[in-house]
Design a protein that fits this description.
6-stranded mixed β-sheet, alpha/beta, about 800 residues, elongated, 10 helices, EC 2.7.11.1, ATP binding, about 25% helix, Malectin_dom
Length: about 800
């Protein structure tokens, strides 16, 4: 329309210059008008829009004001709730103090509530913190006072019946018999949560360890409880399951009794369970198969019974398993083949039976395998040919038969090889020469045959071949060449004495031997009874011959004691009460087998006396009193003591006890052997304290012993002397009776009445001739008035002549 108006003005003005100028001005004005009209239109639209927005804003403001009021109401309500919670906690504070709850827990709860009340935070965050605080309170577990009485007071009903977290730790300590200081934060490292005892025993540990890295280093959790060598008298707390981040439980060397709670298997983070050297009983819980992270289960030296549960087959994370010195039953289970991650397996003196499962071949990661003293039938050597990392291989007294496999000789990483007291036969493998760097090789107590490998006479650290059937021609006439023990290593000698002493000749016969084991020469009485000295240090494969008629052979070294040179003699620092205390001031020890061997003895029955006293443990309540020494004793190859415990038999430590046995000597030798069958503690009071201990030995003949000059009197001669003496007494009594010396005169007169007595007188010369001048040989008795002699007259008449005493006065009548 604007354009039409412009055209109309053009037609009115015409074509002159003024008109043209005016047209241009008008056109310009119209253009400005058009722009203004457009601007007005837009402005009108904007105003309408603003009006619409303004109306919306009014509505929004009303809603916002309403919401703001609602928020303020919610905040006021939460303030009220928090205030009420704070009041409840404040009220509870007095009760917590009464119950002995530590101050740091009180402060933590109160400050948490106070901070929530004053913090300028979003209501949702505030609500979340309140919820967390309430959950914390609800998770606590303490519902009684220190005496166990119910809580009675003005505590809000919302807290009634709730138990406090503190009680978990308190109950754990109470169950263990451990008194912790609960006024100190366990994770602070203070108090008695992490301390050392005065003069602590070796192995002592008193540590509760926390990990405070949770929730951005704001939350701490207990991850380890280690209470070693403290003689704690309690039981294993099932409450430990409420410590869900626990990784280590170590209660080694205490007096803990009762069963092992199966609930421990619910701790999914647990890696180490160490309960060795306690007095636990019952079975291994079935639940133990539920451990998801377990690496070590150590149960050595307890009183556990029953079979190993099949659920243990699931423990594929296991790296170390020790169950020696227990009372288990059944066989070693086949499921151990599932433990392919296992590094160490100890089954010594456990009570289990063989055979060793063939599935052990799957344990190719083993570095330490110790199995000993299995019950049951014979079995072949286990297939360990793929186990290349073994450093210690102990298969002792496992009823293994057959020859030693060749693959054993390829285990060049071995530090200890113990195949003793099995039923192995055949020759020693040729490739055993590759084991010349092995520290200890024990093939004792088998039936190995063939020649002695020549390399053993010049190489090898410590080798024991005692008690075998090697060719005697290949062995030297010496029981101890280098570090090689050859006592009873062959059976070629028929003279009775051991083959390695075949060149020895007895210079005299012996009827006794007396040894002060591990000590000096000792005289025990006024008669000069002497016990010979036995002070040589001994060794791991050791033989010693005395200067008289005995020797000893010792096999084994003390494992895990970390001592380079073992001691096989123990000195007693305490006093021994009783007879001959000087015999118990020293003792000889052995970690495996100890034989005392007597020779040049006259055949017959002997009384063997073995003197013992436990001098390495204590009888107080300290850690060193937890030790148990258990071993077997053989006399002449027969076991006479099984599971012998010196302390138990003697009624305490440092008390002497003597055991008597009869030994029949038929080949001029006597043998007394002491053997460790894998039972008893091995680390109390120190590592490596175990095995046989003996203080003295005496062996005495039960038959008459010749005098020192060698002349002896037979039993028949002794009987003849006794008979002759009795006859003489009877003869004298008869003569005295006949002479009337045993009756009254009246009685004699009555007896003689009516008898015709043949008496007469004879010249003194004739009487002297008849009695051979009163030869003492003819004297037949003596009465009150003089001696009586037998005489013989020339006509053969036998007479009795009394030679009167000058003091009798009888000749005067």
């Amino acid at each position: 329309m604007l354009e039409m108006k412009v055209d109309e003005i053009h037609s009115v003005l015409g074509e002159d210059e003024d008109a043209e100028a005016m047209r241009a001005e008008i056109q310009h004005l119209w253009a400005r008008l058009a722009f203004s009209e457009d601007a007005r239109t837009r402005a009108t639209y904007d105003v309408t829009k603003v009006q619409t927005i303004q109306k919306a804003c009014v509505v929004t403001r009303k809603k916002a004001e309403s919401q703001l009021k609602s928020c303020q109401s919610m905040i006021q309500a939460k303030d009220k709730e928090l205030t009420e919670a704070l009041n409840e906690l404040t009220k509870a504070k007095g009760l917590l103090a009464k119950l002995g709850v530590p101050g740091y827990i009180e402060t933590e709860l109160i400050e948490l509530a106070a901070n929530d009340l004053t913090a300028s935070i979003d209501i949702s965050v505030l609500q979340e913190r309140l919820t967390n605080m309430i959950n914390l309170v609800k998770s606590l577990e303490f519902a009684g006072d220190v005496n166990g009485s119910p809580v009675v007071g003005d505590v809000n009903e919302s807290l009634n019946g709730m138990k406090f977290l503190l009680s978990r730790r308190r109950q754990i300590g109470k169950t263990l018999g451990k008194e912790w200081n609960f006024s100190v934060d366990p994770c602070s490292g203070g108090g008695n949560w992490n301390t050392s005892a005065p003069n602590p025993p070796k192995g002592y540990n008193n540590t509760v360890t926390c990990n405070c890295s949770y929730e951005s280093n704001t939350i701490c959790h207990v991850v380890s409880i280690s209470l070693k060598a403290q003689s704690l008298p309690g039981s294993v707390p099932r409450e430990m399951v409420r410590l869900p981040y626990l990784q280590v439980i170590s209660l080694l060397g205490n007096r803990i009794t009762g069963p092992i709670p199966g609930e421990l298997a619910n701790i999914s983070t647990l890696e180490d369970l160490v309960l060795e050297y306690n007095q636990l009983s019952g079975n291994i819980p079935l639940q133990f198969g539920n451990f998801s992270s377990i690496k070590r289960i150590l149960l050595t030296s307890n009183n556990l019974t029953g079979e190993l549960p099949a659920t243990l087959a699931k423990l594929t994370t296991l790296k170390e398993f020790r169950i020696g010195d227990n009372k288990f039953s059944g066989s070693i289970p086949n499921f151990i083949e599932n433990w392919t991650s296992l590094d160490k397996l100890f089954i010594q003196g456990s009570g289990l039976s063989g055979p060793i499962p063939s599935g052990i071949a799957s344990m190719t990661n083993l570095s330490d395998l110790r199995i000993s003293d299995l019950n049951g039938n014979d079995s072949t050597f286990p297939p360990l040919n793929n186990t290349k990392n073994l450093e210690r291989l102990i298969l002792r007294s496992c009823n293994i038969t057959g020859e030693i496999p060749i693959f054993v000789g390829t285990m060049t990483k071995l530090k200890v090889l113990d195949l003793s007291f099995n039923k192995l036969s055949g020759p020693i493998p040729v490739n055993f020469e590759d084991l010349s760097k092995t520290g200890y090789i024990y093939l004792t107590g088998n039936s190995l045959t063939g020649p002695l490998p020549p390399w053993m006479l010049k190489d090898g650290e410590s080798i024991d071949l005692s008690y075998n059937n090697l060719m005697s021609e290949s062995t030297p006439p010496n029981c101890q060449p280098r570090n090689l023990n050859l006592f009873e290593s062959s059976k070629g000698n028929t003279t009775g004495i051991t083959s390695c002493l075949r060149d020895f000749r007895c210079e005299k016969k012996y009827y006794f031997l007396r040894i002060n084991c591990g000590g000096r020469e000792v005289k025990v009485d006024d008669k000069g009874t002497t016990y010979e000295a036995d002070g040589e240090p001994g060794g791991s494969s050791y033989f010693l011959q005395s200067k008289t008629n005995w020797a000893f052979s010792s096999t084994g070294h003390f494992l895990d004691d970390y001592i380079k040179i073992d001691s096989y003699i123990r000195d007693n620092i305490s006093s021994i009460s009783g007879q001959n205390p000087e015999l118990y001031m020293n003792a000889r020890l052995s970690p495996l087998s100890l034989t005392y061997y007597g020779f040049c003895l006259e055949n017959g029955n002997y009384t063997v006396k073995l003197h013992f006293a436990e001098i390495m443990f204590t009888d107080d309540r300290n850690y060193s009193s937890l030790g148990r020494r258990i071993f077997d004793v053989y006399v002449q190859g027969t076991r006479v003591l099984k599971d012998f415990n010196i302390e138990n038999e003697a009624g305490g430590v440092n008390k002497a006890i003597v055991r008597h046995f009869t030994a029949a000597v038929t080949a001029k030798t006597v043998e007394i052997r002491l053997y460790w069958a894998g039972k008893g503690t091995t680390g109390i009071p120190d590592r490596g304290v175990y095995g046989p201990l003996i203080s003295a030995i005496s062996v005495n003949a039960d038959f008459p012993v010749p005098s020192e000059n060698g002349k002896s009197m037979s039993t028949g001669a002794i009987v003849g002397i006794i008979v002759a003496v009795l006859f003489t007494i009877l003869l004298v009594l008869g003569i005295l009776w006949w002479k009337g010396c045993l009756g009254s005169k009246d009685t004699i007169g009555q007896d003689l009445k009516g008898l015709e007595l043949h008496t007469g007188s004879f010249p003194l010369r004739q009487i002297k001739a008849a009695t051979n001048n009163f030869d003492p040989a003819n004297k037949i008795g003596e009465g009150g008035f003089g001696p009586v002699y037998k005489g013989l007259l020339s006509d053969g008449t036998i007479i009795a002549v009394k030679q009167l005493s000058s003091k009798s006065k009888q000749w005067e009548s």
